[in-house]
Amino acid sequence: MEKIHATTVLGVLHNGTVALGADGQATMGNTVAKSNVKKVRTLMGGKVLVGFAGSTADAFTLLEKFEEKLNAYGGNMKRAAIELAKDWRTDRYLRKLEAMMITASKDEILVISGTGDVLEPENGVAAIGSGGNYALSAALALKKHAPQLSAEDMVREGLHIAGDLCIYTNHNLVVEQIQ
C-alpha cells in the first residue's frame, strides 16, 4: 500500500508579520487522495504557526510532539524545535517518521527535519515539500522586487505559482499569519 503524502508549505517573515501557508493536496502515489488537507496549524493561542509536508500521519505525530515541547519550554519556539529535532533523530520510533515541518512566530521561521536539522532560513523565507523550491523561488523574488506586498500576499502568490508548476500542489490554500 502506498503512503499518503501532503506537499507544499511556504512561510514568509516580512515587515513585522509572518505568514505560513500550504496547499491542500494529498497524494497517494500518482493519484490525488484529497484536495483540501489543512497542513497549517496555530499553537500557543495563535503565537506559533506550524506547517508540515510529508506523510500525514507522521506529520501529525510530530505536530503533537512539537506542541508538547512548546508547552514544556514555556513557548520558546527555538528551544522546542531543537529538543524535537534531537528526539526525532535519536528516538527509535520517531526516527522512522517521514515528514518535515516549518514553525513560525512573529520573530522567526524555522525548518525542522528528521536528520536533526533546525534551520533558520536566510531572508525570512522557508519552504518544504515537493513544490517547495517553486514556492521558495517565487517568494524570494516577490520579497526582493515587490516589497510593498504583505507576507500573506507573498505566501499566497508563491503557493499559487508552485501550484501552477508542481503536479503535487493545488490551489486550495490555507494561510495563517501573526502580526
Automatic annotation (TrEMBL):
It is an enzyme of class 3 (hydrolase). Its EC number is 3.4.25.2. One of its GO terms (molecular function) is threonine-type endopeptidase activity. One of its GO terms (cellular component) is proteasome core complex. Keywords: Allosteric enzyme, Cytoplasm, Hydrolase, Metal-binding, Protease, Sodium, Threonine protease. SUPFAM superfamilies: N-terminal nucleophile aminohydrolases (Ntn hydrolases). Its main location: cytoplasm. It catalyses: ATP-dependent cleavage of peptide bonds with broad specificity. Allosterically activated by HslU binding. CDD domains: protease_HslV. The active site is at residue 7. Pfam families: Proteasome. Na(+) binds at residues 163, 166, 169. GO terms for biological process: proteolysis involved in protein catabolic process. It is found in: Cytoplasm. It comes from the Bacteria. Belongs to the peptidase T1B family. HslV subfamily. Protease subunit of a proteasome-like degradation complex believed to be a general protein degrading machinery. A double ring-shaped homohexamer of HslV is capped on each side by a ring-shaped HslU homohexamer. The assembly of the HslU/HslV complex is dependent on binding of ATP. This is ATP-dependent protease subunit HslV. It comes from Rhabdobacter roseus. The gene is hslV.
